[in-house]
Amino acid sequence: MLTLQACRARDAADPLRPLRDLFALPDGVIYLDGNSLGPLPRATAARVARTVEHEWGEGLIRSWNTAGWYEMPRRIGDRIAGWIGAGPGETVATDTTSINLYKVLSAALAIATEDQPGRRVVLSERSNFPTDLYIAQALCAERGCELRLVDAPQEIPQALQGGDVAVLMLTHVNYRTGAMHDMAALTGLAHRHGVLAVWDLAHSAGAVPVDLQGADADFAVGCGYKYLNGGPGAPAFAWVHPRHADRFWQPLAGWWSHAAPFEFTPEYQPAPGIARYLCGTQPVLSLVALDCGLDALDAARPLGGMDALRAKSLALTDLFIALVEERCAGQALVLVTPREHAQRGSQVCLSRPEGAYAIVQALIARGVIGDFRAPDILRFGFTPLYLGFEDVWNAVEQLRQVLESGEWQRPEFNRQQAVT
């Protein structure tokens, strides 16, 4: 099955294959970086232009009402909810992942320390995405709490013991390795120790099955510009379990989170439920683009939905791993992504002690776009909405040629740019 002909046959039989036409992918490009920035849906440019020309240009300020701008954060939040196992009215599309994490982690700490005053520790992994750790460091410094880090997932159960941990803060799929936590198991373990669970779904939403309600999670945040294809800097989302939603103010108590923002009272009164996790005026054009990205994702629903997407994602990543090990043997590439399906997200990461950055740059010059993560990771994302099995075969063939020819050693591929 590891032949080009076999890959073409698999593409011909793929029920998700028509979804590729929903995206404006450049000719000659194999895009393996949708885990960092999703590609442009074909419908987005016209939809945003229509919003600019008609809703803004003609409707002017009336469009907050007539075009439904005001309701967009909650309406789009409900669309995202269907992909993360959340109920209606529990999710809002707003702000950035970092800002939303500050909101929900602040609320989680407030709840935990009120219920159990001796708990002052936020527990996370050293390999967690840096912005999550930075936000937690700043918040812990502000609140007089401690951020405690473990070096491996196996250390989490022991670290939850002792009675001083207030919040377990984890990213569901690790950004560097593609390793995926068992959300339900770890949330249940945290709860048995009296600890709240906060999940970052940046590399999960739209890519792998997520069931926040089924896992009984407490809080979650996630990204709109990766697998949701909302465009660079697209609004993120925040989810709060209904049992927590009305307990505390979130710290960024802007006017959109007020119970009656257009009464313009000087005293803050938080809106009920998830609406209090909004802040200031929302970026309408960015929300429109995110709405288009969700249209493209929703097109998979009649074709099998997340079950079909997940099955194809695993098939693509299995094929990539097998082809790399067969065709790039002896090239010092080490697989760091778990082989086990239950532990793998929708990406494959390879480490190489020499030249990892330059190899990625050489691949990009050949039209195979992945990315590099320090210090030595070649990272490749596999989005089943638009990638096929022939793409995988051709990507590995380009990788083989880059390695065997040594072209990655050329000076232009070793000059590191600001964004890697």
Principal-axis shape equals: globular
Strand content is: 5-15%
Number of strands: 13
What class do helices, strands and sheet pairing give?
Answer: alpha/beta
User: What about the largest sheet?
Assistant: 7 strands, mixed
Unreliable residue stretches = none
Radius of gyration: 22 Å
Helix content: 25-40%
What does this protein look like?
The protein has 420 residues and is α/β, with parallel strands linked by helices. Helix content is 38%, strand content 12%. The chain contains 14 helices and 13 strands. It has a 7-stranded mixed beta sheet with strand order 2-8-7-6-5-3-4, sandwiched between helices. The protein has a 4-stranded antiparallel beta sheet with strand order 9-10-13-12, with helices on one face. A two-stranded parallel ribbon has the order 1-11. Strand 12 and strand 13 form a beta hairpin. Helix 2 packs antiparallel against helix 11, helix 4 packs parallel to helix 11 and helix 5 (97-115) crosses helix 6 (130-143).
Question: Tags for this entry?
Answer:
420 residues; alpha/beta; seven-stranded mixed β-sheet; four-stranded antiparallel β-sheet; globular
Give a quick rundown of the structure:
By secondary structure, the protein is of the alpha/beta class. It has helices spanning 4-12, 44-56, 63-66, 72-84, 97-115, 130-143, 156-159, 183-192, 212-215, 242-245, 284-298, 305-327, 356-365, 389-405, and strands at residues 30-31, 91-93, 121-125, 146-150, 165-171, 196-200, 219-222, 237-240, 334-335, 347-351, 368-369, 371-373, 377-381.
